[in-house]
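On clarity, I found the account of how folds are encoded harder to follow than it need be. An entry of this sort, consisting of the sequence and the corresponding backbone structure tokens, reads as follows:
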Amino acid sequence: MTISVSAAADAPEPGFAAPLDLAAPDIGRTIVRLALPAVIGLSINALHHAANAVFVGMIGAHAMAAVSVVLPLAMVIGAIGEGLGVGAAAMIGRLLGSGAAGRASVTASTILTLAVPVGLAITLVVMSVRQPLLATFGANPDTWLMADSYVGVMAFGATLTLLQIIADFIAIAEGNTRFSMWTLLGGFALNIALDPVLIFTLELGVSGAALATILSQLAVLAAYAFYFLARAGRVHVTLHLVRPRSSILRPVIVLGLPTTLASIATAAAFAMVYYQAGSFGGDTAIAGLGIALRMLALGSLPLIGFALGAQTVLSFAYGAGNRARVLAATRFALAAASGFALLYGCIVVVLARPIACLFSANPAVQDVAVTAIVAVHAAFPLAGVRLVVLVLLQAIGQVREAALVSLAPQGYLLIPLLVVLPPWFGFGGILAALAVAAALASVLAVALLIPVVRRLGASQFGPESVGGEKAT
């Protein structure tokens, strides 16, 4: 069934909520205009988590450890939303590039609606097995009650988390990273305002931090409801366009599956990391490592935001069959992402001690955090290449190769190293495993990029010749 969409969906009136022209001739400028709001938005998201950690750290080391051990569960919930969002964004971009705005609207409406039953199912599962989960994540008697209360509030917000993530990806896919940025900025400001009130004034502790996040998500979703109802973008999101069919769901799930699996593998690896850290150094090691991994996220999220902006251009160009534009966008994205990754990695390593002091006043936690920050950022300068290669593979539909790249740094490369190194080298083995896996994953990404670039440059290139499937 063909869904028709008015011309206004393809060329909305310029304004605050209007998407950018994805076919603009200046590729570098287009990527920057798309990526900058995404970078700012995801940086704000990272600052949001960092600020939450600062407030929680004021409660004490046990509170920081309690929130840290729950992090893998939050990552699993986010993984499902990111997988659906990445798959939807890739398909929406390719459909818009091929001129099929109606099919893009159907895809967006269907995937966003799917978030509701999936989120409710997550809530039921988590609430049913949360105590075994906490035991698996390494919660101990000192952190158990705080971790349990934090999980309870987080579980009830699963549906909101999925809806927000997917709505962000839809806006980004149609070229409106600015709206995504402003909603994240508003959510961050509200969350930071609520944190001290709920955590300290109302004496809700770590549960207050989780509740502040849920309330800020409600505000962001209200903004997206207005955005979609006003039909401000290229695609329309309405209930009457929902089509829960395999022809719509399957390509989205297949394209997003590498991202979901990678995030779940990351959650499993982090659970393993925190469990091992606790066995070697107790709550002090868990809290110190948690600080380092939050700083890693603070640098990774802007890179992901930039990659998402690049993916929007890559998917649109691939859907239009424009090989020169795909190659030019890839070259620009690789250079820009690598430059940022190198700069951030060097700055964080140099400022490791002041950063650790910002998160904790405990000297023992600070010492662990400094060592961990330096170690986990050793390979960060290579992260930009890996992320750009990943979004390129997703944009052109090379699902298997994308899965190899996304599952490498926290999956099949990291977990074996976590099994082998810590028994020999203790806490240092955990840090070495994280650094070595990240470096090897980037080398793998480069190896996969070379043949893709060669095929993209071939004269017989068409929408179906690289990814093995037609873009539309």
